[in-house]
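Read as chain and fold; for instance:
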Amino acid sequence: MPVTTFPARSDSKTVQEQYLKVASDDVYAWQKSSLPEEDLFILHDGPPYANADVHLGHSVNRIVKDMIVRYQIMQGRKVSYIPGWDCHGLPIELKVLENVGKGKNGKKKVAALTAPEIRALARQHADNFITSQMASFREWATMGEWESPYKTMIDPDFEIRQLEVFRSMMNKGLIYRSDRPVYWSCESHTALAEAELEYAADHSSKTIYVKFPLIGTGSLKYQYPKLEDKTIHFLIWTTTPWTIPSNKAIAIGPTMTYKIVHSEQHGYLVISESRMESLETDIGSLTIVVDSISGESLTSCTYAHPLIKDGEPQPVFAAHFVTADSGTGLVHMAPGHGMDDYLVCQSHGIQPYSPVNSYGKFDASLPDELSDLVGKPVLKAGQDMVINHLQDVGALAGINSDYKHKYPYDWRSKKPVIIRSTPQWFANVGSIKDQSSSAIEGVKFHPPIGKHRLSSFIRDRSEWCISRQRVWGVPIPALFDSDTGEALLTDISVKHIIEEIKRVGIDTWFTDEDDTTHWVAPEYRADGKTYEKGKDTMDVWFDSGSSWTLIQEKYGELRQRSKSLVDVYSEGSDQHRGWFQSSLLTYIADQHNGKAPYSNVITHGFTLDEHGRKMSKSLGNVVAPAQITTTGYKNVAAIGVSGLRLWVAQSDYTTDIGVSATVMQRVADSLSKIRRTIRYILGNLHKFDGVEVPYSQLRPTDQYALCQLYDLEQDCKAAYDQFAFNRVVQAFSRHISRLSSSYLDTSKDRVYIDEENSPSRRSVQTVFSHIFRVYTSVLSPIVPLLTQEAWHHAPMYLKHEDAERYFSPFVSGWFTAPEEWNNELLRQDFIELEKIMELVKGVLARARDDKKIGSSLDASMVLSAPTGSKALELLQKYESHFAEMLVVSDVSICSQTELDSALSSRDWKYTSELLKLFEKNDNDTITAVSIKPDQSKCGRCWQFTAPAETGICSRCADIVNRASRRA
């Protein structure tokens, strides 16, 4: 009977204590020192943000990466996986300020904090979460260089490399400063990049129709004398009423057609011809006064700002972004609050105007007549006051207080942003757009849609706002003339600043020292100017986006001839606009070699709750990984680290991944089946010395088991090569189900009944050893703790002469199935034989239903086919093996003409319908008949092959006699 020390149930605590270090740290250290570096595989870690406890999304990310790395080790490749953390940025800075503010006299404390104090608190905050996150990652049996991770903070080398990338881009003319509109967080008081936004599809805005009076009508009144004494207004529609004070121009569509219409309530209005019907719904009945005015002719007109007395006449410009799909066909332009507006006005020499401060409130640069707006938040009270002012002067033609539309939000604070013109630092990524797009043509994306997503983000982006108005980050190394405010950003200056940072540390830049002379390069100290340090820090995407420099420094020379610097980048699908993009842009800009930094980009989805909702703190539906591994999830018992990893592997991680009690119970059941099967195999390998029976001497059932094992190994390897772990699990699940219902069942007679070292039993053990070896290969990247534990209990490896060296299945490597197992003739035979097996099962079921038999061994079978048929030839070929394959006591083969005589004098029989084999030949049919055996049940093997009811069969008698003589 089976004997094994491999436990039936997993003790998670014991497994973690005994096998976690071996399966992770020891294996990583072994491969690092033992495998050849020539074929190095690099997975570069996209750094998680060091500001929160781990969640299931972290589990998906870390486990996917770990399966990739572990498979490569199984293939005999040395790997490099250096975990990293993204440490700078707004959320951490705000969090530490919030924590300080919660203390006694908190507001005073926050106001009194110096930049170095804020940085020290932020650093400690990030470091605490790095420690806790790392502990969780390691508990999930993820391997890597945990003793030397990279961090975007503290590490001077990382910061210097990042500054050198900035310097390189600056020297290529890609860095510039400009006063132009940027996304602005009123909550965080800083500029934001496109990658830091998320869009709310149902944002509610107040929209208004505003009348701007014409004061210079150009040729209109000459062409239409009836308008001579009429006051005419341009009618505009806007979703941002708070920007009206910043209006500098009106845009029209140059190819569009306009009308002058009359409204009893609002007078004479200029509108687009195509918008008239819609406008009548919003502002009332309209009568056409002048028809078919070309858009181009309106550019000769000027108008007055309705809220500013004695203001300068303002122009009308043609702009191709104006469409007739919404509004009035005329667009109010505030160049300080919109990029399209900015570009058009800039081309006409109009500078941006933004009377809004960093808190999102109107500032004192407003005209005197609007001074009551100063200090009012533009998205709240300030906007309402603007609308009231328009109402008071008769310029408000309509209002909708609940207009739903798509609107950008700060993805950290979850608050709506504004567009505000401020001086910022930009990277000109438009000039490297073509190179970047070309570079990703050679990159493999998993799933393929990722290429389209990244391409579209690159194509639609011309500049990157890289400056932030915070202190927790890497400084932009610019000095400013104290008198003129002019920036000093030259190679000499930046190089000197970088050398100073190397000497005194990056925190020194943020001290409140009065003397900044040492930051000024000697070449500029005698120019009669005094300089101040810039206060902007770099966008955190520039931090993490330049992390490839770590790999370049470490392995750049080794990878010179490689297709790319890194084999795999793998992160969430949101990183197409984030890390994947910033890494590509900085690499292309710095290296200028036309290559992407990565060969493969692999993305995974988000985690969803049982209702299909994305997990988020605001919904309160976040599931902690410990619920899965340790405490249990809903009514499903804890399934340990192996269960968590199996859940990730079985999911199609390229889409969003659902979590529910039903899903977790299925995972638990699958894990239990894997464990039971491995335990059964190990139990029957007890005392097996590892000496295998040659393939040619195996029975057909053994050879077919190896044929199926060959298919499993090939299918799984192909799936792993495509990073399709769910296909690995699917292939394995199909195999283990068939194995349990076929080979494990049919071979029991040999492993339980035959002599311990008989060729027949050793043949099964040979197959079992191969199954164990393939199973550990296929499963190890997915459930390394389970396979490491099983390996520890495998007798043929524990007794191996070099067992200490082969301490893990990862050290032994991937088991490649021999080509001789790929027996196509046998595979074709078993396609037909399995049809016969299914036929027999149906016949035996009828006998069982009628209480004629209990076990299938209680029956004998007669199989018949037409004389001379291919079917009869197949039956005769496998005649001596059918009893084992069908798990019955005896099988007789005869022709159709001999069937009646073969069934004579039987107490009972059950006959099947004709089964057609080899579909092309109607003569190839067989009949299966279940009959009562004509001998007695053997007390040892339970087959009906004994001559007497109380005896044993001749096979068992020989085995017992030989055992007695040896005793």
In short: The chain has five domains: 34-173+435-451+537-604, 204-405, 479-535, 671-821, 838-934. The radius of gyration is 39 Å. The chain has a mean pLDDT of 91. The longest strand covers residues 197-216.
